[in-house]
């Protein structure tokens, strides 16, 4: 498998050397609903991938069961289902849990806050302020 995009130390996406030589490059994944960039990981199920919220790593005991994602040493995302995490374990969350344009069914205040932040970020991508226009360049 060719890794086409990788994050540099500045957290910017860049094409990997393997990608440049293979010609198989695609853009970093983004949510089809809100358009925000995501981290895509393969799962233990053949042919299935999950979009995880980028740069969000939270204590696993604060995440409800079946929504905890752990990244294994080989880069595969594994859902813990109902397993109780070990103390100090940190996990990732699926983007669909905090996507502002998908229905949500959770009462957790921190996911609501993250969903609101994602909505603000998504609006900056698509919605320009009222009355905005290009400046007159003469």
Distance between the termini: 51 Å
Strand percentage, roughly? 15-25%
Number of helices: 2
Rounded Rg: 18 Å
Question: How would you classify the helix and strand content by structural class?
Answer: alpha+beta
Low-confidence stretches: 7-15
Number of strands: 8
Overview of the molecule:
This protein is of the alpha+beta class and 138 residues long. 17% of the residues lie in helices and 17% in strands. It is built from two helices and eight strands, in the order ββαββββββα. A two-stranded antiparallel sheet has the order 1-2. A two-stranded antiparallel ribbon has the order 3-4. The chain is globular, with a radius of gyration of 18 Å. The model is unreliable at 7-15 (pLDDT under 50).
Give a quick precis of the structure.
With 138 residues, the chain is an alpha+beta fold.
Descriptors:
8 strands, two-stranded antiparallel ribbon, 17% strand, 2 helices, alpha+beta, 138 residues
Please give the structural blueprint.
Blueprint: E1 5-7, E2 13-15, H1 17-22, E3 39-42, E4 49-52, E5 58-59, E6 69-71, E7 77-79, E8 90-91, H2 109-126
Antiparallel strand pairs: 1-2, 3-4, 5-8, 6-7
